[in-house]
Design a protein that fits this description.
Elements: H1 2-12, H2 26-29, H3 43-54, H4 57-60, H5 62-99, H6 105-113, H7 116-146, H8 154-171, H9 173-202, H10 226-240, H11 246-249, H12 257-286, H13 292-295, H14 307-314, H15 320-352, H16 370-385, H17 393-426, H18 443-457, E1 464-465, E2 468-469, H19 471-495
Antiparallel strand pairs: 1-2
Helix pairs in contact: 3-9, 3-12, 5-10, 5-12, 5-17, 5-18, 6-7, 6-17, 7-8, 7-15, 7-16, 7-17, 7-19, 8-9, 8-15, 8-16, 9-12, 9-14, 9-15, 14-15, 15-16, 17-18, 17-19
């Protein structure tokens, strides 16, 4: 299938462009209104989409394992560093997305401001990242339902989950936005209640002991394993924030991107601070870092040891495990829903850019790219099937590749923004023309670029375990980087593309 797709891509490359240097000009290819997306997402939808991207299993499950890895201090520092990095990335994306709101935004920006080959590689990297995420969420949904109905085969629940998210995405972009709004609202309310109850438990308001700071001084705490512990948390924490860039993907379907995108972007940092840092502080106060439950809390297979479940039980909430299992099921639905949305819009953009067959640029009367949606659902199913065969080795490789490719996408945002601002000045524009201006340029995107590169370089960190080296973990960690380089160099060689001169970068808004 991969070879056939590659042939189709090569044959359709010039369908919208006279030559490879014009690859990034999306709007000129989009002359046929019947294949346009609909701008119906409201400000509240974008705000909740950005929240939904940050609150997931990384918070509800993996936060406990992070505390066990680096101790309370190491977890706080690791998540804070990643939070700052994401803030800079979102402001960079916000500056470009408000000036030129295009669906699949930063992938198109890579082609416009850097090199058509760079945009091509970024786009396919981002598409398969989210397509594999669909498979991951299908698998997770089956495991979650097993908690209540252990005798029903997991694949049945996975199939039901797929039908639901395909149905939601088939309605309209407004249907997706509305569904994601309520999913995200449920998650926000859960975190707020968790923090409030945690404070009551820690201070003794609900009775029992006053915990104080004793867990912050226990054993090696607050920094377990020193700098290596912080690095371990840092590598894991980045994956928890994957999806925050969805607000940029959705910018092309926003009613008023110049107003709504900056509003959503500005709130990202404070949400991260409240939800992640606040939750980690509460967990650290109440549960010691060496608690066996925290060490094993990163799996959806046993929600009873989720740090959120443990804290809610301390508050006296008896059905805590059932409540958290339901919340995590909603989280999986939300993640799968967003993954399918991101894939279809990215593939639609590629079709209109000459980077994918034209058929995937078609939309129905409701503005939904159905061919792109169907292909993504099929690829997600095929990837899911790898979890059922060969002891899941291939599936784990795909899972790691999907996670790593998210950091490649973030590097694409940082590089594109750096080039965008340089080209903007080089072509005689004034910064006053920008509807929204990123903070601390050029320091912001440079910091984000360096930190993302460190994470990518550290993917082999987990391959060293107990004095041995795991080649499977190593291959899975670096597979996405290899795929990206093959896509980039292959397209560059075939089409003989060059890095754009700053004075020739396409800054046209419409």
């Amino acid at each position: 299938m991969g070879n056939e797709l590659e042939v189709e891509l090569t044959n359709s490359h010039n369908s919208c462009f006279k030559d490879a240097e014009k690859l990034a000009d999306l709007e000129s290819c989009n002359a046929d209104d019947k294949d346009n997306l609909h701008r119906t997402l409201k400000g509240r939808h974008l705000s909740m989409i950005s929240i939904g991207g940050t609150i997931g299993t990384g918070l509800f499950l993996a936060s406990g394992a992070s505390i066990a890895t680096g101790g309370p201090g190491g977890a706080l520092v690791g998540y804070a560093i990643v939070g700052i990095m994401v803030f800079f990335l979102m402001t960079s994306l916000g500056e470009m997305a408000t000036y030129m709101p295009i669906s699949g935004s930063f992938n198109a920006y890579g082609a416009r401001f850097v090199d058509p080959a760079f945009g091509f590689a970024l786009s396919w990297n981002y598409w398969y990242s989210w397509a594999l995420t669909v498979a991951v969420e299908l698998s997770a949904g089956g495991l979650i339902m097993e908690y209540w109905l252990p005798h029903v085969p997991n694949w049945i629940w996975s199939a039901c989950l797929l039908v639901i998210i395909v149905g939601i995405n088939s309605i309209s972009v407004k249907g997706y936005g509305e569904t994601e709004y309520w999913f995200a609202l449920i998650k926000v309310v859960t975190v707020v209640i968790f923090i409030i109850l945690g404070i009551f438990v820690a201070t003794g308001v609900l009775g029992g002991v006053k915990y104080g700071f004793r867990n912050f001084t226990l054993g090696e705490a607050p920094f377990v394993d020193g700098g290596y512990g912080v690095l371990g948390v840092f590598l894991v924490a980045g994956f928890s924030f994957m999806g925050t860039e969805l607000v940029g993907v959705a910018a092309g379907e926003s009613e008023n991107p110049e107003k709504n995108v900056p509003k959503a972007i500005k709130q990202v940092f404070w949400r991260i601070l409240l939800f992640y840092i606040g939750a980690i502080i509460i967990i650290s106060f109440l549960i010691p870092y060496n608690d066996p439950n925290l060490v094993n809390s990163g799996s959806v297979q046993d929600v009873s040891i989720s740090p959120f479940t443990l804290v809610l039980k301390l508050s006296g909430l008896k059905p805590a495990a059932d409540i958290m299992n339901a919340i995590i099921l909603i989280t999986v639905l939300s993640a799968g829903n967003s993954a399918l949305y991101a894939c279809t819009r990215t593939l639609w953009m590629m079709a209109h850019s000459g980077m994918a067959p034209k058929i995937f640029g078609r939309v129905n009367s409701r503005g939904v790219p159905m061919p792109a949606l169907i292909l993504t659902a099929v690829v997600g199913c095929l990837a899911f099937l790898t979890s059922l065969f060969g002891n899941g080795v291939v599936y784990m490789w795909l899972l790691r590749a999907s996670s790593t490719s998210g950091f490649i996408a973030w590097i694409g945002i940082a590089v594109s923004h750096f080039r965008f601002r340089q080209a903007f000045i080089a072509q005689g524009h004034s910064l006053d023309e920008l509807p929204y201006r990123a903070r601390l340029y050029p320091l912001g995107p440079l910091i984000a670029l360096v930190l993302c590169t460190i994470v990518l370089g550290g993917q082999g960190y987990e391959a060293y375990s107990n004095g041995s080296f795991d080649w499977g973990v190593c291959i899975g960690g670096y597979l996405a980087i290899i795929i990206f380089l093959v896509l980039y160099l292959g397209y560059k060689i075939v089409n003989k593309t060059k890095v754009h001169k700053l004075t020739e970068c396409d800054l046209s808004r419409f």
